[in-house]
Amino acid sequence: MKPPLRKMLFISLGAVLLLILPMAASLAGESYFISFFSRVLIYAIAAVSLDLLLGYAGMISLGHAAYVGIGAYVVGIFFYHSSAMEPVFSFPFVLQGSENALLVLPLAVVASAFAALVIGALCLRTRGMHFIMITLAFAQMIYYFFVSLEKYGGDDGLSLYSRSTLPGVDLGDDVQFYYFCLFLLFGFVFLAWKLVHSRFGLVIRGGSNNQRRLQALGISSYRYQLACFVIAGAGAGLAGGLLANHTEYVSPGLMHWTLSGELMVMVLLGGLGTLFGPVLGAAVFLLLEEILAMHTEHWMVYMGPFLVIVVIFAKRGLYGLITGEGNSNG
User: Fold this and answer.
1) Pairing between strand 249-250 and 158-159?
2) Phi and psi (nearest 5°) for 63?
C-alpha cells in the first residue's frame, strides 16, 4: 500500500477509534479509560504545539511547559477568585473571577500567547545552544515565580472543586468533557495543518533550513518564527487550561522543565514534523507510563531503551514507521 493511502487510512482509523472510545469503554465497564484518554487528548494538544517549533521551525525549546502552566493557572486563579467572591484585580478596571469556560479558556490561550510573545521576542535573537538555554531559563523563572505565590498555594498548588461551566455542555461529565477535548484537538490539528501547508509554513520550514537564503529573498524570518512561537505557546496554554479542568488541580510542577522533556519525548516518539505523530506519541507515552507504573516506580528505566530503539529503527517516529512516509511534511 502506498504511503499516502496508508497515511489516510491510519488517520481515519485513529479518528474513528477516538470517536467511539467512550461508548466502547462504557460498554466494557471501564469508565476509567474515558478519563485517561481525556488526559491523552490534552497532552496531544501540547505535543502538537511543540511539534510546530521542533519539527517545522527547527526551534528546540526546553521551556514549553511554562505556557502549559500559565494556561492552567489562569483557570485556577479565576476559579479561586470566583469561589472567594472577590475580583482578580481592581485596577485599572475590575475583573471578577469566573468559572465560565467561554471566558477562562480564551484567557488562558491569550495569557500563554502573550508570555510566548515576550519570551520569544528575546529568545529568537539567539541561536543554537543559547536559544535552548534561554527558553529553559525563562521557564524556570516562571516556575519559581508561581512557587512564591503563597496566596495561590505556593509549592502546594491550588485545588479546584469543580470544572469550568460551559453553556449546553456539562464538563463535569467525563464523557462530555472527553468529546470537548477531542473537538479542540481536532480543531487545533486542523489549524496547525493549514498553517504548515500555507506560505507561512513554507517560510518557517525554509528558515529552519537556511535563514540566509530567506534573507537574500527579502523575507524576515524573525517575524515568522516569532508568530510560530506565539501560536505554539497559545496551543500549550489551551492544553494547560484543559488540564486544570481535568485534574481539578494546578501547581508549579506543570511548569517544570521535566514536563517540557516529556512533551519532547512524545513528539520524537510519534514523529517529528508530522503533526499527527505527536498525537500517537502522547498516547503511546502515557499508556506505557500507566502500564509500567503499575509494576515499578522506576518506569523511566524501561521507557528509555524503548525510546532509543524507536529513534534508531524508526527515524520518522512511530507515525512514519506505520505510514511508511519518507519525509516530514505533516
Assistant:
1) antiparallel
2) -120, 20
Of how many residues is the chain composed? 330
pLDDT along the chain (330 residues), means of 10: 82 94 90 93 97 91 94 95 87 86 96 96 89 93 94 91 92 95 97 92 78 68 91 97 95 92 93 92 93 81 84 83 64
Are the CB atoms for 188 and 238 separated by under 8 Å? yes
What does the H/E/C string look like for the chain? CCHHHHHHHHHHHHHHHHHHHHHHHHHCCCCHHHHHHHHHHHHHHHHHHHHHHHHHCCCCCCCCHHHHHHHHHHHHHHHHHHHHCCEEECCCCCEECCCEHHHHHHHHHHHHHHHHHHHHHHHCCCCHHHHHHHHHHHHHHHHHHHHCCHHHCHHHCEECCCCCEECCECCCCHHHHHHHHHHHHHHHHHHHHHHHCCHHHHHHHHHHHCHHHHHHCCCCHHHHHHHHHHHHHHHHHHHHHHHHHHHCEECHHHHCHHHHHHHHHHHHHHCCCCCHHHHHHHHHHHHHHHHHHCCCCCCHHHHHHHHHHHHHHCCCHHHHHHHCCCCCCC
Domain architecture of the chain: domains with CATH: 3-323 (1.10.3470)
Side chain identity at 25, as an amino acid letter? A
* Residues 318, 281 contacting (CB under 8 angstroms): yes
Residues paired with 89 in a beta bridge: 95
pTM for this model (two decimals): 0.93
Q: Which three cell numbers stand for residue 83?
A: 469561589
> First and final CA of the chain: distance in angstroms?
19
Nearest CA to 234 out of 77, 136, 119 is that of 119
